From TrEMBL:
Binds 1 copper ion per subunit. Its cofactor is Cu cation. It is found in: Periplasm. The keyword Hydrolase does not apply. Gene3D superfamilies: Cupredoxins - blue copper proteins. It comes from Candidatus Halobonum tyrrellensis G22. It comes from the Archaea. Keywords: Copper, Electron transport, Metal-binding, Periplasm, Transport. InterPro entries: Amicyanin/Pseudoazurin, BlueCu_1, BlueCu_1_BS, Cupredoxin, Halocyanin, TAT_signal. This is Halocyanin domain-containing protein. GO terms for molecular function: copper ion binding; electron transfer activity. Its main location: periplasm. It holds the Pfam family Copper-bind. SUPFAM superfamilies: Cupredoxins.
Length: 159
């Protein structure tokens, strides 16, 4: 079927489809303008199911001590979920209290706290070497209660 200006309906639809695909391709290629990592690619997918991780690592390099909140507001999370520190930094996990017990356990077994519920509980670990330390809450790992400490600098680390 021809339109009054000589174009067929099929040609018009093909043109609209091609324009839409080109627009989508442009959006996809321009979305990569930032080097912000995502839970899928950063940390080997470890942060994929972490509800409060949106691809950003809190930069606390240069601080001698960093605090991470365990289960803020009763959530099954650590805050910040991912933190970058310098070698020699002590990370202190602080419990906020609540009806559910939580712990901090490194995925490779390098450190682990006891299970705590009280808001005055803390656990600390000093990170000496560059690398990535993945940790989780033992009873809530499957709920995405996981975190990362990225130690930057020193031998083999990022500057």
């Amino acid at each position: 079927m021809s339109e009054p200006n000589g174009r067929t309906r099929r040609a018009v639809l093909a043109g609209v489809g091609a324009t839409g695909l080109a627009a989508l391709a442009g959006c996809a290629s321009s979305a990569g303008g930032s080097d912000t990592p995502t839970g899928e690619s950063e940390y080997g997918g470890w942060m994929r199911a972490v509800s409060n991780y949106e691809g950003e690592t809190a930069d606390r390099t240069g601080d001698s001590e960093v605090r991470v909140t365990v289960a803020p507001e009763g959530d099954y999370t650590y805050a910040p979920a991912a933190v970058a520190v310098s070698p020699g930094t002590t990370v202190v996990w602080e419990w906020t209290g609540g009806p559910t017990s939580h712990d901090v356990a490194e995925a490779d077994g390098g450190y682990a706290s006891d299970l705590h519920t009280s808001e005055d509980a803390t656990f600390s670990h000093t990170f000496e070497e560059a690398g990535v330390s993945k940790y989780y809450c033992t009873p809530h790992r499957n709920l995405g209660m996981k975190g990362v400490v990225e130690v930057r600098g020193g031998d083999g680390g990022e500057g």
